[in-house]
Write a structure and sequence with these properties.
Oligomer: single chain
CATH class: Alpha Beta
Strand content: 15-25%
Largest sheet: 7 strands, mixed
Number of helices: 5
Number of domains: 1
CATH architecture: 3-Layer(aba) Sandwich
Number of strands: 7
Helix content: 25-40%
CATH topology: Rossmann fold
Amino acid sequence: MNFNKAEFERAYGLAEQLPPSEKIEIVFAGRSNVGKSSLINKLFNRKNLARVSSVPGKTATVNFYSCENVHLVDLPGYGFAKAAKGEKIRFSQLVGGYLGDTERNIGLVIQLVDMRHAPSKEDVQMINYLIDEELPFVIAFTKADKLNKTEREKRLSAYPSEIPCFEDITWVTTSSENGEGVDTLREFIESVAEEDEPVEE
């Protein structure tokens, strides 16, 4: 899979605008300011494929990117406290409308969690939702470069008591700064993409 071929396709602001699945979908989810856009750009060797902002809650739409036989889907960040009530409702309906659509061909959800802090209440709710709905997912712990060895070990030792079913979850520590974990995530994506490739007769 050529990760350099990823291109922005379209953004959708309402659940009823979402298109039907035409390709297998790799979904990026996480709280506001967790580093989704930066990690997407690192994965696909692009500086501005996904717009990076220091302002939380900047991604207010479901953004579709195309890369060969895969759609990459960037969900709006959740947990932005300053968002207006109407926007929070729209976000909830938009994300719920996407993930709750049983017709969607979701191959993998990459659930981002900021490694510098304990998972938020919304992080745990999302992980529980993915488990309950039996959606395939991995956790990408972001901003790992911001922690020293002791801090990192402390966070990793705390996760089993903070994250439901942690022992059974596949996870990887990542950094969009130094590229840690990027090759592993690419392997996960390629594995899903290969499973969905048509068999030549």
